[in-house]
């Protein structure tokens, strides 16, 4: 018996899930690929959950509009599920496919409380995905966030770290298997940690291990890197970094972004947000600015030269 | 030549020694039946031990000569054979130089590095480059790509194939004859058609595929490279019994080594890096432990040096340790372009 047969590359699924904005889609060449695990890393308030919610609605779109005509499973571990924000995004989301008259019927939400809980949940999710209760197949899996589960449970001892990374690989293997079996898009979010004790010029000194181009990741004026260390970085296919920085600009122009603290026309605090591809098998390192407005997350095309 | 060097289990080795088989020469004339009786083991096991012998001695370039051991070869023969061999180019001349012309057939090469350094890119590049037609100085082989992580992207393979074709046509633009002769082969889609892709989701599948490859390669003689991306992923979960993991891994590496020799092809294993806790501090090292480092002939480490990617020959019996910069461009792996700005999209 032949256990696994070679496949023709032409038969592999190449579908992509739109991020819900053409500018951001351009950054990731059409969207997030099915069959692989994409990580969104960023500090709190960077827009990870916002983007995830947008993806839940994007998945419902028909393939012609960049969607998957699919339901989604959202596993959250951080705060209560932001239902109101999702409702708020609903009107602006593109028309979903005919089967989905009520989009919220096709978003399954489940909290996870510990890494082991997450693993058993994923194992149980096989049944849900194989026989979806709604009319649509489940083809988007979001874990928001993986870091919250892991950062509290383990000590900083060799034995505990080993146990932790073994669990990483177990969970990642399960996620990848599901991505592959069901042609699903898997998105996990990650937090960041500060990078300390490394001189700026030498990102590759022996004490700091550089993953991707993270020598240059800054958020809120701090040098940061995605949490959970090297072994988790080995577990994801694509890593996307979201950052924010507040800057004071003296212009009326900034007002149009609607995120000002001060409407006196003199000084305005504006949040600049950036989405950055850290590593991906199919994408070059690149970045794009974006804004979060009432209608969702949108990329901004800048005239400024990239540095 | 000692029995002690033979790649068999310690208990088998002890049985051999206590039965009086202390040298390989003493084993060379013995039949499986006789060995099974002398060692008091199953016939199958005895013939397995004897099967290990010819490959092992061939790779050791035994001084005994052909007369004593079947399958033995003199070093002179091996040298002339090796000089005939073509190597698989990586696409980056500097990298080829330190590798002694490219990736060698009949050898197992391990490539390690942090996520995002370009291991998968190199893997896809080699799967494409192995197919360069003979007229263009390539091997015109096919590739087996074993994907354990789901990082293989068809669109990227297509892009790299296009880049490879563009560069080849440019390099041979004065050789119209060559270009006309290979028109059909030099299409991205025909490059993609000659990559046999296996996507596997567990370590048992990984072992099964590798064991199945022997049969598969017997039918597909054109395959000139096997790439496993990565060899590590499924071995980093669920292995509480590390001794068992070591046994499984060494069995796998022996099988790969055998395939490389039998079918005259290159095996490239991509490996992850991990932190190792030694003497109170964490250090960076390739995954799968110390015994695994014997599994490959050559070991190449990819690392960041400032904003540039570099490759370093960490272990090789025939290459001197050296490092070279390389870059990952939209066309694939190429020479580092430190003068030019790095390619940035958007």
Quick summary:
The complex is a heterodimer of chains A (307) and B (346). Chain A is of the alpha/beta class.
Structure description:
Chain A: One of its GO terms (biological process) is t-circle formation. Chain A: Keywords: ATP-binding, Nucleotide-binding. Chain A: Residues 13-192 form the RecA family profile domain. Chain A: GO terms for molecular function: ATP binding; ATP-dependent DNA damage sensor activity; four-way junction DNA binding. Chain A: This is DNA repair protein XRCC3 homolog. Chain B: It comes from Phoenix dactylifera. The complex is a heterodimer of chains A (307) and B (346). By secondary structure, chain A is an alpha/beta fold. Chain A has one domain (13-196, 208-300): P-loop containing nucleotide triphosphate hydrolases (Rossmann fold, 3-Layer(aba) Sandwich). Helix content of chain A is 26%, strand content 26%. In chain A, the strands form 3 sheets. In chain A, strands 5-4-6-7-3-11-12-13-14 form a 9-stranded mixed sheet, with helices on both faces. Chain A has a 3-stranded antiparallel sheet with strand order 8-10-9, with no helix packed on it. In chain A, strands 1-2 form a two-stranded antiparallel ribbon. In chain A, helix 4 packs parallel to helix 6. The termini of chain A are far apart. The model of chain A is unreliable at 199-207 (pLDDT under 50). With 346 residues, chain B is of the alpha/beta class. Chain B folds into 2 domains: 3-79, no CATH class; 85-335, Rossmann fold. In chain B, 39% of the residues lie in helices and 20% in strands. Chain B is built from 12 helices and 11 strands. Chain B has helices at 10-18, 24-28, 32-39, 43-59, 75-84, 93-98, 119-129, 154-171, 176-181, 188-193, 203-219, 242-262, and strands at 108-113, 142-147, 195-199, 223-229, 266-271, 273-278, 281-286, 298-305, 308-315, 323-329, 332-335. In chain B, strands 3-2-4-5-1-8-9-10-11 form a 9-stranded mixed sheet, sandwiched between helices. In chain B, strands 6-7 form a two-stranded antiparallel ribbon. In chain B, strand 9 (308-315) and strand 10 form a beta hairpin. Chain B is globular, with a radius of gyration of 22 Å. Chain B starts with 9 loop residues before the first helix and ends in an 11-residue tail after the last strand. The model of chain B is unreliable at 61-66 and 339-346 (pLDDT under 50). The interface between A and B is large, with 58 and 58 residues.
């Amino acid at each position: 018996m032949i256990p696994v047969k070679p496949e023709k590359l032409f038969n592999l699924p190449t579908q992509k899930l739109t991020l819900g904005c053409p500018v951001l889609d351009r950054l990731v060449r059409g969207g997030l690929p099915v069959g692989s695990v994409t990580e969104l890393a960023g500090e709190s308030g960077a827009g990870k959950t916002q983007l995830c919610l947008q993806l839940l609605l994007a998945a419902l779109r028909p393939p012609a509009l960049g969607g998957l005509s699919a339901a989604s499973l959202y596993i959250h571990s951080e705060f209560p599920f932001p239902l109101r924000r999702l409702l708020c995004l609903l009107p602006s989301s593109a028309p979903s496919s005919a089967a989905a008259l009520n989009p919220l019927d096709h978003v399954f939400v489940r909290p996870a409380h510990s890494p082991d809980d997450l693993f058993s949940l994923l194992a149980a999710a096989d049944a849900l995905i194989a026989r979806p209760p709604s009319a649509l197949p489940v083809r988007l899996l979001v874990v928001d966030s993986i870091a919250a589960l892991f950062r509290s449970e383990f000590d900083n001892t060799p034995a505990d770290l080993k146990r932790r990374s073994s669990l990483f690989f177990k969970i990642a293997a399960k996620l990848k298997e599901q991505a592959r079996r069901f042609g699903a898009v898997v998105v996990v979010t990650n937090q960041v940690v500060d990078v300390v004790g490394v001189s700026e010029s030498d990102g590759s000194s022996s004490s700091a291990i550089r993953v991707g181009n993270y020598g240059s990741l800054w958020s809120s004026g701090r040098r940061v890197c995605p949490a959970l260390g090297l072994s988790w970085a080995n577990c994801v296919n694509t890593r996307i970094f979201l950052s924010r920085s507040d800057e004071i600009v003296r212009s009326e122009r900034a007002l149009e972004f609607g995120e000002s603290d001060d409407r006196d026309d003199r000084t305005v605090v504006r949040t600049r947000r950036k989405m950055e591809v850290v590593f991906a098998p199919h994408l070059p390192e690149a970045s794009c600015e974006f804004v979060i407005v009432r209608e969702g997350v949108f990329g901004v095309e800048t005239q400024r030269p990239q540095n | 030549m000692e029995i002690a060097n033979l790649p068999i289990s310690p208990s088998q080795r002890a049985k051999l020694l206590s039965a009086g088989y202390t040298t390989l020469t003493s084993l060379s004339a013995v039949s499986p039946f006789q060995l099974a009786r002398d060692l008091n083991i199953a016939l199958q096991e005895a013939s397995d031990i004897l099967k290990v012998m010819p490959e092992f001695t061939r790779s050791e370039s035994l001084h005994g000569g052909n007369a004593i051991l079947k399958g033995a070869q003199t070093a002179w023969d091996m040298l002339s054979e090796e000089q005939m061999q073509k190597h698989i180019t990586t696409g980056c001349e500097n990298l080829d130089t330190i590798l002694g012309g490219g990736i060698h057939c009949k050898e197992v090469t391990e490539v390690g590095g942090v996520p995002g350094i370009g291991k998968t890119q190199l893997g896809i590049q080699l799967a494409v480059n192995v197919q360069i037609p003979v007229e263009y100085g390539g091997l015109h082989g096919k590739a087996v790509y074993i994907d354990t992580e789901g990082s293989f992207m068809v669109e990227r393979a297509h892009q790299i194939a296009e880049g490879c074709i563009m560069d080849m046509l440019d390099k041979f633009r004065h050789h119209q004859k060559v270009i006309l002769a290979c028109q059909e082969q030099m299409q991205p889609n025909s490059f993609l058609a000659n990559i046999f892709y296996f996507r596997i989701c567990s370590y048992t599948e990984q072992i099964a595929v590798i064991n199945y490859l022997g049969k598969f390669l017997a039918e597909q003689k054109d395959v000139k490279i096997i790439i496993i991306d990565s060899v590590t992923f499924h071995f980093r979960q669920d292995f509480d019994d590390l001794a068992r993991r070591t046994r499984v891994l060494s069995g796998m590496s022996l099988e790969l080594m055998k395939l490389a020799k039998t079918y005259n092809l290159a095996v490239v294993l991509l490996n992850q890096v991990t932190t190792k806790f030694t003497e109170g501090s964490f250090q960076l090292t390739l995954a799968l432990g110390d015994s695994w480092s014997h599994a490959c002939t050559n070991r190449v480490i990819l690392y960041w040096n400032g904003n540039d990617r570099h490759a370093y020959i960490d272990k090789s019996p025939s290459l001197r340790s050296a490092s070279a910069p390389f870059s990952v461009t939209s066309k694939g792996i190429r020479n580092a372009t430190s003068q030019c700005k790095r390619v940035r999209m958007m």
